[in-house]
């Protein structure tokens, strides 16, 4: 019996020695791969075709109720009264970029894509700070449109050239905005329809003499959010992507 207890004691001592020895061995945790940050020049989808991930209501928190997804398109339901209250903006801000998207509207609709938008309670809508690529039914709008109000304009600032060709209402168009250190281009259906330089004396004159004379912060920001406008009409967007420059 004593011998049996002696053997058991030796076994427990050995086990304890193993515990002591192994407890000193450092444990290396597996390193998780870091989230890759897209390099400049890489196209990034701003709309996944299924959800509103990456977007929120301008100056708002909580779910967006006036936009929905239909057949892979981001659809503005036109619930806003007038030109404020229903716009959505990206969660991320951008400085220099190439932004492209596809869009279509219904008869008599009005919308737009706005960039360098600043969120602040003192602003009623993105257009108070951000320049707009205008989207509207040129032919079917119920009132007379000025040239600076028509599709493809840098709204109330610069006009498109003769290369502008808009697809019929209800069919898809492709558009693009390039902003690079103040150089701005608008493209429509594969053609460059407009180009200008921001913050020049000509730009400042147009701002001071036109619609934006009462909006001191219009166009001043060099970095800001991308906005899709709810102007109280239905509008459809898809294939929205951006490449930082």
TrEMBL record:
It comes from Mucilaginibacter rubeus. This is DUF1080 domain-containing protein. One of its GO terms (molecular function) is hydrolase activity. Pfam families: 3keto-disac_hyd (PF06439). InterPro entries: AL/BT2_dom. Residues 42-243 form the 3-keto-alpha-glucoside-1,2-lyase/3-keto-2-hydroxy-glucal hydratase domain. It comes from the Bacteria.
């Amino acid at each position: 019996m004593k011998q049996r207890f002696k053997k058991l004691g030796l076994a427990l001592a050995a086990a304890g020695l193993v515990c002591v020895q192994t407890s000193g061995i450092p444990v290396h945790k597996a390193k998780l791969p870091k989230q890759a940050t897209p390099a400049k020049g890489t196209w990034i989808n701003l709309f996944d075709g299924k959800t509103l991930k990456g977007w929120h209501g301008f100056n708002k928190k909580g779910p967006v109720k006036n936009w929905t997804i239909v057949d892979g398109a981001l659809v503005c339901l036109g619930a806003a009264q007038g030109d404020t209250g229903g716009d959505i903006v990206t969660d991320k801000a951008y400085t220099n970029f190439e932004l492209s998207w596809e869009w279509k509207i219904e008869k008599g609709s009005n919308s737009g894509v706005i960039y360098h938008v600043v969120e602040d309670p003192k602003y009623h809508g993105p257009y108070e700070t951000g320049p707009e690529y205008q989207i509207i039914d040129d032919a079917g709008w119920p009132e007379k449109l000025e040239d600076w109000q028509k599709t493809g304009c840098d709204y109330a600032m610069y006009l498109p050239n003769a290369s502008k060709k808009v697809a019929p209402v209800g069919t898809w168009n492709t558009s693009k905005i390039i902003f690079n250190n103040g150089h701005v281009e608008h493209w429509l259906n594969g053609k460059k329809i407009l180009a200008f330089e921001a913050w020049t004396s000509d730009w400042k004159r147009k701002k001071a003499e036109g619609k934006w004379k009462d909006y001191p912060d219009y166009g001043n920001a060099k970095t800001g959010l991308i906005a899709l406008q709810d102007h109280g009409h239905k509008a459809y967007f898809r294939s929205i992507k951006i490449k930082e420059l």
